[in-house]
Give the backbone structure.
Amino acid sequence: MKRYLPICLLLLSLSANGEITKWVDADGKEHVSGALRKWVDADGKIHYSDEPPPANVKAKTLMMPSAASGVPAQKTYVEREAERKKTLKAREDAAQKSAQQQEEVLSKQKYCVDLRANLIAMEKSPSIATYNDKGERGVMDDATRQKKIEEVRKQISSNCD
């Protein structure tokens, strides 16, 4: 008895795997096994079955098993590894992009701080030293100084908050 139990369980599992079999009979009528059907016999009794009804009875198919309704297909190791690498690559790219954006923000903040410091120095200083191409020192006149102050203000208003 104990020997037959595993064999019975194996046969039972094979018959309950939900496979769909389609065939066409000699009359050209298509049959599908594995589908849930409903029909009424000659006595008026309603039957539900996955077996085809008798030939003289018209059956209504209620539900067809689909491949997606079963257990989802397991991914292979190669597919899982490819997904893992893709996820890691996406994370690295996002982190790199975030770091680059943060660097740009810090660079812009430093630029704005430098512009404001230059503006304050130009406004407070009565004379600003300049150097020509030969390296000789000179003093910026007031008109040039005002023009430079306006240029720095325009840069601040267009580039800084």
Remarks:
- Confidence is low (pLDDT under 50) at residues 14-18.
- Residues 32-64 form one domain.
- Strands lie at 21-24, 30-33, 36-40, 46-49, 60-63, 129-131, 137-139.
